[in-house]
Amino acid sequence: MAPRTPTAPTAAARPVFQVGDQLELFVKEDLTLNGSYLVREGGYIVIPRAGRINVAGLSREEAEPRVREFLQKTQLKEATVIVERTPGVASGTGAVGAGPTGVPRVMVFITGSVPRTGAHAIPAPAGKSVGVYEALLISGGLTKFATLDKIEIFRYDASGRRRKSVIDMRPIMKGEADDPPISEGDIINVPEKVFGF
Asked: In what order do the strands lie in the sheet with 162-167?
């Protein structure tokens, strides 16, 4: 009986960032840090006002806490960080934007009051748009502390800048309003209710 090698599937499931990758960074507490960052020849990205952070050879699960700790030391008291390879430039992971069954997928980044934050490849069959509420359900739903009337969508405009829009999810959940379709690269932030004492 051949010895088990548990590390192989883990490596396949968690591709690492490499020099030349374009990474998308989202920091909930400081939107000025958001943007695309190139992994440079030295294996690092350069974040304005923060400096160099080495990410080459790290998986997303390893890079996110490193960036968070670095920002908390240099810029912020608290940092909620998402780091993801920009869709379409993944290295060594096969066809980007299509799942194992060949169904097209839309990559969105979800943060805030949800059970599973991070990047989500949402199945989007050809000819069918997927709404924001639908995408949140597919990715794990909302927590009981979610602020439903102030869901924030950060989306690239024609000039390449991210613009924020706010939607009220309550009429959508009741079937009284259309569910606005998601777009590739959207950041969906679900704020948490603030309780006063």
From this structure: 118-123, 105-112, 187-190, 151-156, 162-167
Residue 6 domain flag: no
Helix, strand, or coil (residue 70)? helix
Do β-strands 35-38 and 162-167 pair in parallel, antiparallel, or remain unpaired? unpaired
CB-based contacts of 114, cutoff 8 Å, min separation 6: 136, 139, 140, 141, 142, 143, 146, 190
Cut 0.90: pTM above it:
no
185 and 144 in a common domain:
yes
Q: E strand or H helix at 51, and its extent?
A: strand 51-54
pLDDT tens, position by position, 98-127: 444 456 788 888 998 988 888 888 888 777
List, for residues 34-60, the tens digit of each pLDDT value: 777 888 888 999 887 788 899 999 998
3-class secondary structure, 3: coil
Number of folded domains in the chain? 2
